[in-house]
Amino acid sequence: MQPGYTEAEFRHEIRFLLAELPLATAILNATEDTILTQADAWSQIEYFAINGFTPSDLWNAFVEWMAYFYSDLVMKQHISEVALRRARILR
Question: Residue 57 CA to chain centroid, in angstroms?
């Protein structure tokens, strides 16, 4: 990403980049409520665990970024730490 984006441009670019991740694609393209747990995503996450980041670090970052940048579609459920695609009713 190049510096100098407006807030709206930055958010749009981050949403685009997140949507390219297979884990995000699975959530965003779901046609019904979908729960994705760390255990479900472990094999994909551990592949990227480099440079001192643990799979847990990456999972937490993924959930936080998805919940923030896709707040219209994704919510974080604190109790079990899952990324949950919101029901169509909430849109």
Answer: 13
